[in-house]
Design a protein that fits this description.
Number of helices: 7
Bound molecules: hypoxanthine
CATH topology: Rossmann fold
Order of helices and strands: EHEEEHEEHEHEHEHH
CATH architecture: 3-Layer(aba) Sandwich
Largest sheet: 5 strands, mixed, barrel
Shape: globular
Strand order of the largest sheet: 5-8-7-6-9
Length: 235
C-alpha cells in the first residue's frame, strides 16, 4: 500500500489494532521505552513518533497526535481507515472545572462536549453528542477498580481554544457538570463513531481552573503512570 500523507507505514499489520494516543510525541516514546517489549518505531513524519510493541505479550501501538482536534482528526482517520486500527485510546492531560477534582486525579471522558466545528462535516439536522465506546469505557472502569485506582467518569469539554479571550466562559460548562477541559476527544469520538470503531479518552488533571494550581512537566511525567497502566491493560 501507499503510505498516507502523515504516517509513513506502507503495510497493514505494522500498527496494532489497539493504539494509545498521547498528544506529546515524546510521551509516546516514553510509553514505548518504559512499558513495551520488542518495540519497533513506525513513524517519524512531522515528529509524530509512533511505536508498536507488546505489553504483557499483547500487541499494542502508541503514537503522538499533536494538540487539537484538526491534528488528532487527521491521525485517527488515517489509523482507522488505512491501517485498520479498531481501539483508539487517548491518554492526555486536562484542566479541572470542578472543585472536588485535584491535581493528578484521573478522568474518563464518557462524552465530549465541544465548541469545535468538526461535526459540521456530517450536515446533521441537530447537535451530535460525541460519546466514548461503552466497551472500552466499562473495561477501563473495571481495570481501575481492580487496581483500586479512583477515577471520575463523566462529560468533558474538547475545546478549540486554550487562551480564551473570555476568561470566565468555562464556568458555563462547569455549571452543566463538565468535569474538565482538553482539546482532542470530541474529534476522536466522532471519527471512531463514523467508522464504527472504539475510542476512549483517559485524562490526568494537570491544572485546575478552580484553584489555579498547576503541575510541573517533571511531576506530570511521573504521575501519569497510573493512567497509562489502565490504558495499557485495555490491549
Ligand atoms: N485547557 C485545555 N486543555 C488542557 C488544559 C487546559 O487548561 N490543561 C490540560 N489540557
Amino acid at each position: 500500500m501507499i503510505p498516507t500523507p502523515h504516517i509513513q507505514v506502507d503495510q497493514q499489520g505494522i500498527i496494532a489494532e489497539t493504539i494509545l494516543l498521547p498528544g506529546d510525541p515524546l510521551r509516546a516514546k516514553f510509553i514505548a521505552d518504559t512499558y513495551l517489549d520488542d518495540v519497533v518505531q513506525f513513524n517519524t513524519v512531522r515528529n509524530a513518533f509512533g511505536y508498536t510493541g507488546t505489553y504483557k505479550g499483547k500487541k499494542i501501538s502508541v503514537m503522538g497526535t499533536g494538540m487539537g482536534m484538526p491534528s488528532i482528526g487527521i491521525y485517527s482517520y488515517e489509523l482507522i481507515h488505512f491501517y485498520g486500527v479498531k481501539n483508539l485510546i487517548r491518554v492526555g492531560s486536562c484542566g479541572a472545572f470542578q472543585e472536588d477534582l485535584k491535581l493528578y486525579d484521573i478522568i474518563i471522558g464518557m462524552a465530549a462536549s465541544t465548541n469545535s466545528n468538526f461535526q459540521s462535516q456530517y450536515s446533521l439536522p441537530g447537535i451530535y453528542s460525541p460519546t466514548a465506546s461503552w466497551e472500552l469505557l466499562s473495561k477501563a472502569v473495571a481495570i481501575a477498580n481492580a487496581k483500586s485506582t479512583p477515577v471520575h467518569v463523566g462529560n468533558i469539554l474538547s475545546s478549540d481554544i486554550f487562551y480564551d479571550d473570555d476568561r470566565e466562559s468555562w464556568k458555563k460548562w462547569a455549571n452543566l457538570g463538565i468535569l474538565a477541559v482538553e482539546m482532542e476527544a470530541a474529534a476522536l469520538y466522532m471519527n471512531a463513531a463514523r467508522a464504527k470503531v472504539n475510542a476512549l479518552c483517559i485524562l490526568t488533571v494537570s491544572d485546575s481552573l478552580v484553584s489555579h494550581q498547576v503541575t510541573t512537566s517533571e511531576e506530570r511525567q511521573k504521575s501519569f503512570t497510573k493512567m497509562m497502566e489502565i490504558a495499557l491493560e485495555l490491549a
